[in-house]
Give the backbone structure.
Amino acid sequence: MAEDMRPVLHCTGISKFFPGAIALDEVELELYPGEVHALLGENGAGKSTLIKCLTGAYRRDGGTIRLDGEEIAPQSTQASQDLGIGTVYQEVNLLPNLTVAENLFLGRQPMRRGFISPRRMRDMARETLSEFGLSINPDEPLSAYSVAVQQVVAIARAVALSGKVLILDEPTASLDHDEVELLFSVIRKLKDRGLAIVFITHFLDQVFAISDRATVLRNGRVVGTRLLGETSQTEIVTMMLGRQLESRIHDRAPAEAGKTLLQLCDFGRRGMIDPFDLDVREGEVVGLAGLLGSGRTETANLIFGAVQADQGTVLLRDRKIGLGNPRAAIAHRFGLCPEDRKTDGIVGDLSVRENIILALQARQGWFRPLQRAKVNELVEAYIKALDIRLASPDMPIRLLSGDNQQKALLARWLATNPDFLILDEPTRGIDVGAHAEIIALIEKLRENGMALLVASSELEELVAYSTRVIVLRDRRHVRELRGKEITTANIVRAIADETVEEPA
Amino acid sequence: MRQTLRSAFKRTTPQLLILAVVLLLNFLVFPDFFSIKFQHGRLFGNLIDVLNRGAPTALLCIGMTLVIATRGIDLSVGAVMAIAGAVAASLVVDGHGWGTALIGALAVGCLCGLWNGVLVAVLRIQPIVATLVLMVAGRGIAQLITEGTILTFVNPGLIQLGAGTVVGIPTPILIWLALGLAVTAVVRRTALGMLIEAIGINEGSSRLAGINSRVLLVCVYLISGFCAALAGVIVAADIKGADANNAGLWLELDAILAVVIGGNSLLGGRFSIIASLLGALIIQSVNSVILLSGMPPEFNLVIKALIIIAILVIQSPTVKHALYIIRASAQPIVPPETPKELKESTQ
């Protein structure tokens, strides 16, 4: 990146406010022609908001965007496309039932005497595609080709329409290794043609493989921009997570080794998570660490049977069991508090009372209703024990705050008296007080002999309660940290794939 | 128990009010509306007619309420009525007893429900499409059973189900009342109602909480098929014949309407069978108004539509909100901004 080059796109002081939240706070971004610029950050960091401001999907509330030195304020994605900013999304935004050629030229078909000229369109399509190294039949419907090819077609269309700045929003999320290579070769060609490319992804390896620079966002602010040749994955991860690499030693006495409860062997599902082995003992908290998309949630869902594994065996107390669906898992006294409370957890219009007894009632079967008195006793006990704040247990659960919804979901599973409880991001979106309460609860459950598997992006939290931490990376279990190895610094290093410091 | 009654009353207040208004309309156009006589061992009167004629819709809306609570819909109930009527008629014509005919018809109805349930729950076809299949095919099947004719019969036992009385009360009234109460008791006394509501509100969460949504979905379509079959037998018994073309024609729409008038959301979730039954009575009372007012029959459908639109508009949240604001702004002390707000929000 030559210093004397003028940026093709220059954003300064971009701000965007949502009711009650600052989504972007004075964000700066410079894009030079011929560079691939990675935009990094955890969920909610402001990546997509920034992109939407650039493409005109949102109106920014402050700041300026200069394209080739001219200030622009696109009012729609169409307008920004005309200005030269093209976007390709993870979900291909094309029409799968039209042919490849039609998709490429939709809205600007070559005309001949007032009619579309299919032959010219086909020839032009073939030419365009060959520039991108694709030799496919432009007359086939787009859906006949793999997602990667569809991505390239989408890129070809975006480049043809815009041609200055190309934004790729998680283009590799659903691609396998070879397809990523195909896409990267296309990106390199475009880079040589002088396009400025913004690349958004959760896969750090891919960032380092293709990008020149990276800008890291956190909580709507730019943490920093780095030349990737001069930085390490550890530094980038630290910037994303906002953790100091303090080497606090995990000083809790190792938990007494309880009996082995669950043994997973070679357990996995293609395209979701690579096969892994995992033992869980009674009275143990196994933490799952990793960046977003690294396979934490996938691991949790697979073990609970929410998604069916396609290989591997499961032993529960040395007896082989099947985990085909959540009902089977619940029958074996498993529980799962899912990551997305709203869509997978609460049943919004049912009362808090009904939500708390739902799993227990489902396990009992519909023809054996819980006694009213027992329900009240149970619900009141958990409301008190977990300090759920509500006007009445008969109010719909959707009216509760996020903290209290999460506590009610915990109560739902505790009411089933589980042996093995999986918590996926138990403290996401929860205020400080409730946060501490939930961590204390995890400790207490562990002391009572329950086995827990906790996936979290809060590293300090994982360090606080885990007896072991499994580190995931690119949908693989890559490392296990035990005892004194469990520090936030070591977790960050393991996520960034560097050697772990041996405990002193 | 008293608390349950009170909350049930609170839930059905709008339906009770609307029913009262429509009955009052009946009274205005026909002052003798509420008079009930006891003649020839049987109750007579317009009110009894409403209860009696409303029986098919009432029966259908019991099953339809459960189906809609799961976020589904059952378009096939009218056709299932025709099939069940045809089965019952052909069985008695073949010399079987009325008991066999009834059981046979109900079994076929359950089979139809099972078919719908499997399409929806196992093959995951959208309910409106899945049940459309049987809605179209069902009348054809019924015609095959009756061999294209109106299959008449004289079996007194079967006729008794549609046209007879028990201790002076027409049998259909007793049947729908009994089934409505029985199904309400089953879904509310067991956990079935709550689990059905949970599926309708958030099937994903319900599955993760361990609810067997597949079996429950099949169950509700099965119940709907059963209700439709019972309605079909009653209609056939009433006219002493199975008319494959006209039995239950468009009645699925009345049943859906009854459920909606009953305040149940088509998006699934919370449901009340009693409110749906009141909805069915409201529809029948509207029919009665039109009949008794002596208006030419060609006005019937238009007037029915107008009354129903009025009912739905009164129930709509937007109108409720506007009424609330009008009432609030009618308070003696009006802040200066309020009239402007009112103007904006009622536009």
Q: What stands out?
A: Residues 333-347 of chain B have pLDDT under 50 and may be disordered. Residues 316-347 of chain B form one domain. The radius of gyration of chain B is 22 Å.
